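User: Here's a chain of 372 residues. Predict its fold as tokens.
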Amino acid sequence: MNDKIPPHPIFATRRDFLRCSLLALPPLALPAVFPRTAWGSAGTVINVRDKGAKGDGHHDDTDAFQDAVDALPGGGTVIVPPGNYIIDAMRAVNLRSNMLLQLDPNATLTAIPNNSPRSHVIKVWSANNVRIEGGRIIGERNNHGGMGGEWGYGLNIQASNQVHVSNMHISECWGDGIWIGAIGPNGNPVVSRDVTIDNVVSTNNRRQGLSIGPVDGVVIMNSTFSNSNGTKPESGIDIEPQAQGLARNITIDHCIISGNHGTGMEIHYNVSNVTVKNCSFRDNLGYGLLTADAPSQITIIDNVMTGNGLVGLVIAGQSSHIKAIDNTLQGNSARYARRIAAAIASPNAAAQKRELRIDPETRDVTVSGTKF
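Assistant: Prediction complete.
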């Protein structure tokens, strides 16, 4: 398990098959550019300690954090010095537009145990121009009071624009370390746009390292999503907006997806224009990377998939307009002794079957430059 933030990594539905056990044009998403003045760096600066936060690992600091956020007039910066700040995830710290939450690298937000199926440590809902830098979030999975639900989040971003999260470590959440999605009914949600996750570690969360719902423009780079375990699908990254809306223009670049108890990364229906490049998918118990249902315009390029329990790369369901270029697939399907035996008997044919699978229902799939 990678528990350090890497300076720059070297590089059933999901519940039954992961539902059925995709690469075309590059996505349009580009890293969002945030004018520094949008966070009021030259304006109001508030230290959570000045609002009563103690950071002693015992005192409930939720009100102090929220008071600091709410005291920003029209934007500004909230500073979080070193310490262990106890946060009531049933209330959460609710960020607002045009602000920077600047956490010291030795600042930790620790969730108070609860018995609810749904909770959040930090929420960014219906906000614009928000930046979060540094620190740690520790969820309450180890002391959770119930067994139901799977929606205990470390960081929840919904219906928000121009959000940038960097240099953060998130772990031990009852559900997902990070959720990026929308607010609103199926077919007509308010989606999140221009969200960047950079140099973040999300590890040992119960459901997923990162889940992505309806969005338009997300960049995930230089980050690690590892050791998801506890309730299915247990993936590192899951892009599954389902019927709520579309997830499009997504880039996953220079990330490590490893040690998850499910599939490394899943891409499902209502998803288009996704590029996955320069990533390492290793030692996940399921597939390395799976496209299922009917995603389209997916590009998978220059990735390494190795040591995964099932097939390294699976293009399944009605996935269409998929390009898989110059990927390295090696040592996958490790959970099946019969495939290892077949590989000894017929190395070349068996290698491709255990490393790469393309289902007959797929359309317009191009695979080239694969190294087995």
